[in-house]
Design a protein that fits this description.
Layout (H helix, E strand, L loop, with lengths): L11 E5 L5 E10 L2 E9 L2 E2 L1 E4 L8 E2 L2 E4 L8 H11 L9 E10 L10 E12 L2 E15 L2 E11 L13 E2 L4 E11 L4
Antiparallel strand pairs: 1-5, 1-13, 2-3, 2-12, 2-13, 4-7, 5-6, 7-8, 8-9, 9-10, 10-11, 11-13
């Protein structure tokens, strides 16, 4: 998914740098009678931002795409169940999760280099063929005119996306809520 700068556009085009970024999900369960926090992550993420430092409200976030086939956990069996049974990522139509932004709210009036600020990103998340509107709480830091760093998080219910978690020996009390997080760096072509 790509954004483009039109002629006369004063915004700067940034691309998420996958090698410096990570998307995660976090869910709690009981494993063999002990509480366990499960984390799955990948750096297979793509997306663009058009940023107007003089008038941040004029900025735009493009579609963010994640390859869920590449999500890894701390356990080979869990990773296999996640990709194959829960996300069904081996099916072409479920290979990617996509977030399509609708609105950015709470942006500052101006941004100076070095500024860090909080805002919200409302949009539609599609995972496992199901789309739901949700809002991420985000923080962004303007490192330089050619580099941004940020993070965002939200909480979803996995069942809202048509997913079920299979029974597994020793696993119980899997939480309904899943925290979704992203840490990212984005650079301009000049960066």
């Amino acid at each position: 998914p790509a954004l483009a700068v039109q002629s006369g556009d004063t915004r700067n085009l940034f691309h998420i740098a996958p090698e410096e970024s990570e998307v995660r999900f976090i869910i709690d369960e009981t494993l063999l009678g002990n509480p366990k926090t499960v984390v799955g992550s990948t750096d297979e993420i793509a997306g663009d931002l058009l940023v107007d430092f003089q008038n941040p409200a004029n900025s735009q976030l493009g579609t963010i795409r994640i390859n869920v086939r590449t999500l890894e956990t701390d356990n080979e069996f869990r990773t296999r169940a996640l990709r194959g049974q829960i996300l069904q990522a081996d099916r072409a139509e479920f290979e990617f999760a996509e977030f399509n932004p609708i609105a950015l709210t709470g942006l500052p009036d101006t941004v100076m280099m070095g500024d860090s600020f909080d805002f919200q990103i409302r949009g539609n998340l599609t995972v496992h063929g199901v789309t739901r509107e949700l809002t991420f709480d985000a923080t962004l830091t303007a490192i330089s005119a050619t580099r941004l760093e940020g993070s965002a998080s939200t909480v979803v219910l996995y069942r809202d996306f048509g997913m079920t978690i299979p029974e597994a020996p020793g696993v119980a009390n899997v939480a309904d809520e899943v925290k979704l997080e992203i840490d990212f760096a984005a650079t301009t072509s000049e960066g």
